[in-house]
Structure formats: structure tokens, C-alpha cells
């Protein structure tokens, strides 16, 4: 029995297809965003980019967190795990470099453009709630 517990604890957890932040806590209106400081707008903008970077490339598989290859019936072979790990790493590196760029360049943008982008991103994220409507049966 002790031996089986040891093996069970050594079993590696399945990697999630969507890793990182995958939701936002609040959607905003134009009037609300007009009252935000530019610093707050920059923060919201970057948060929405993070969600989009984590979800959109994977919507053919999932739109919610905690989905694994195993839960989709994808064999967890060495090759598939390696491909997923490489994808997750590339996604993280892309997001990190994008945020670094955004933090240095985005402050020069006009607040109206930031507001428009935030509203666009939020509408895009809202549309994920209807994604299943597009699946053919």
C-alpha cells in the first residue's frame, strides 16, 4: 500500500491548455472609463491583453481554465506534452514582452484610444460567452 501511495504522488499533474489569467472581474461602460486615470486605464488594458493572450489561441479546445489534454481525449504522449509545454512557454514569453513594451510605450497613447481599445477587448471577451453558439452540431 505504501508503494502505491508513493507512485500516486509521483504522478505528474496534467498540464492545462489555458494557463494564466483567464477572466476579468468587471466589464466597463464608456462613462466609467472616462472617469479613470490614465494609469488605471493602462492597468485595465494590460489585464485584458493577458486574458486574450491566454484564451484566444486555444478556443478550438477550450474557453475556460482547467481543461487538460486528458479531459479532451488528447493522448498525453511525450510529444504532445512537449508541444503543449513549448506553447505555454511561448505564450508566457509573448505576454511578458508585450507587457514590457506596453508599459514603456503605451503611456504616450491618447486616453480616448485606450478607452476604445479596452471597450473593444471587453466586447471580444464577452463574445466568448456565446462561442458555443458557433459550434456546428
Structure in words:
- The protein is mostly helical.
- It contains six helices and no strands.
- It has helices spanning 2-10, 30-34, 38-55, 69-72, 78-105, 111-127.
- The longest helix is centred in the C-terminal third of the chain and has 28 residues, at 78-105.
- The radius of gyration is 19 Å and the shape is globular.
- It starts with a helix and ends in a 10-residue tail after the last helix.
- Mean pLDDT is 85; it is low at 6-10.
- The total beta strand count reads 0
Instruction: Look at the structure and give the mean pLDDT.
Output: 85
Could you say which structural class the secondary elements and strand pairing correspond to?
mainly alpha
| Cα end-to-end separation | 46 Å
Rg over CA atoms = 19 Å
Largest sheet: none
Strand and helix order: HHHHHH
Topology:
Blueprint: H1 2-10, H2 30-34, H3 38-55, H4 69-72, H5 78-105, H6 111-127
Compact description:
The chain has 137 residues and is mainly α. 59% of the residues lie in helices and 0% in strands.
Structural key phrases:
137 residues; mainly alpha; 6 helices
